[in-house]
Design brief:
By secondary structure, the protein is mainly β. Helices cover 6% and strands 48% of the residues.
Length: 498
């Protein structure tokens, strides 16, 4: 068919020698009201259509137009300056959902009243095709791949580079093209998984829309579906799912060797279709939740092997750390180890997990394995360094409360006037004999002054220590026994001047 040439008005007037509206003779004004149907089949409720260009042409002139006017917010336009006793064609075009809406009416310059221009698809002013794809129950089939060719041989070859038209069906299962040649086309329609594949003939006439409906018998998919839920029935997302061909591969757990893999979505489900029917060994894991489970799924052709895993309540370890006054202790670093040797190293890289703070002195972790742990509890600023051994039972809240604090002593060395004595050497020993001999190589530690005459050490192993306190420049040389109790700071005032 002949396609109207909708060029800019100035260019068209130069090409066709048309006059501007205000130079045309006559005084008749014709009102136009434009409506558009809201359905591609032209059966919807008409609506006002605003901000639309309306073209005015001489009757039966399908190529050139005299001028255009634009509709207002209500879909109305006023055509002025038409020659008396002449007839004109008024038309408009609009593309919606891949199909062209067209309308054309003939008006008389001396006509009275308002004229209605109804834009509807598939009228006599256009041609093309509209293909609708449905299943056997007439449900739409979206996202089908449609390639239209000019011959059956090309359609069978199915080379997209040779296609006259390429598109996909929309959410209603439709794909369309207007303003085509008058010929017979061949549409190759395929699904992404290629289970649906057909070729249909699409004859297009010079006028009118060729409407074709393709009904497919959609085969049931072959695949598996896994749903993982917590104890409350809520889906658990971000669980890694790997399906293996053998039990040995599943036990090894290297997902690079999996037949396919993925992760559960927000609803806790994972589905894979289009897979060969066979027995799969599926391993589902989430390290943060302590989840690692394997099951077998026997996938049959055109069926979905469905499995639901309901997890027991999660395992929780909650630790309340309080001082000797019963107040919570914030700012602690708590690392869990699986042996006392690892706890003694306090290497963060060797810790099984850390307990984050969830409140003032309350630390909580979820999803660990059920076993015994050695918790290394430290705070350099507070002089706390302790190890607690706790057992964790699966699927319950393991709540513990421990009383901790700095373990050590606070020493003030002064004269008879309670004045601190500077320059003292203070060393700790495990026996009185070592302290009396001031054997520096055998000292457990040497204290640095915290102020004049003030010495403090915490984070000690509970027990009895002997302190050698001396100064070569002044007559100070004494040995003091001190008892260090767990989570307690022993305070001593010593007059060391004889």
């Amino acid at each position: 068919m002949t396609k109207p040439l909708l060029l800019a008005p100035v260019v068209v007037m130069l090409l066709s020698g048309c006059r501007k509206p205000d130079s045309l003779p006559g005084s008749s004004d014709i009102g136009l009201h434009v409506t558009i149907t809201n359905d591609v089949n032209g059966t919807g409720t008409p609506q006002d259509y605003s901000d639309k260009y309306i073209y005015v042409a001489n009757t039966d002139d399908a190529i050139n137009y005299l001028f255009s006017v634009k509709t207002d917010a209500s879909g109305n336009a006023l055509v002025k300056g038409l020659a008396e006793e002449e007839s004109y064609d008024v038309y408009a075009h609009e593309m919606r959902e891949g199909l062209q809406y067209s309308g054309r009416i003939t008006i008389q310059a001396d006509g009275a009243g308002q004229q209605h221009l109804d834009l509807r698809p598939g009228n006599s002013d256009q041609n093309g095709f509209l293909i609708t794809c449905t299943d056997a129950a007439d449900g739409p089939l979206p996202n089908l791949r449609v390639r239209v060719y000019t011959s059956l041989a090309l359609a069978q070859q199915n080379d997209s580079n040779l296609a006259y038209f390429k598109g996909n069906t929309d959410s209603f299962g439709r794909v369309s093209k207007t303003e085509t040649a008058t010929t017979s086309y061949y549409a190759r329609i395929r699904s992404l998984d290629q289970q649906l594949d057909t070729t249909v003939s699409v004859p297009v006439n010079s006028r009118g829309i060729t409407r074709i409906t393709c009904r497919f018998v959609v085969p049931s998919p072959t695949g598996l579906r896994l749903v993982i839920r917590d104890s409350n029935g809520a889906g658990i997302p971000q669980v890694n799912v790997c399906a293996f061909a053998t039990a040995a591969l599943a036990q090894a757990g290297d997902c690079a060797s999996a037949a396919f893999q993925g992760a559960t979505g927000p609803d806790g489900s994972y589905q894979k279709v289009g897979i060969p029917p066979q027995t799969y060994h599926v391993r589902a894991r989430n390290a943060l939740l302590g989840l690692d489970t394997t099951y077998t799924c026997d996938v049959q052709a055109q069926t979905i092997c469905e499995t639901t895993i309901d997890l027991p309540p999660i395992t929780i370890l909650q630790l309340s750390c309080i001082d000797l006054n019963g107040a919570g202790i914030p700012g602690l670093t708590i690392r869990a180890y699986v042996s006392p040797v690892l706890a003694a190293s306090n290497d963060p890289a060797l810790a099984t997990f850390e307990l984050p703070a969830v409140g003032n002195g309350v630390y909580r972790k979820e999803g660990m394995a059920a076993q015994q742990y050695w918790l290394r509890i430290t705070s350099g600023a507070q002089g706390i360094d302790a190890v607690e051994v706790l057992g964790v039972t699966a699927s319950v809240l393991n709540a513990y409360s421990v009383t901790i604090g700095p373990t050590g002593f606070d020493l003030f060395c002064h004269d008879g006037n309670l004045q601190g004595i500077p320059g003292l050497v203070v060393q700790a020993y495990t026996t009185e004999a070592f302290a009396l001999g001031a054997l520096e190589d055998l000292a457990v530690f040497t204290l640095e002054p915290q102020g004049i005459g003030h010495y403090r050490n915490t984070g000690l192993v509970p027990g009895t220590y002997w302190l050698s306190i001396r100064n070569e420049d002044i007559p100070v040389d004494t040995v003091q026994q001190i008892l260090v109790q767990q989570y307690s700071v022993n305070t001593l005032d010593l007059d060391v001047i004889p």
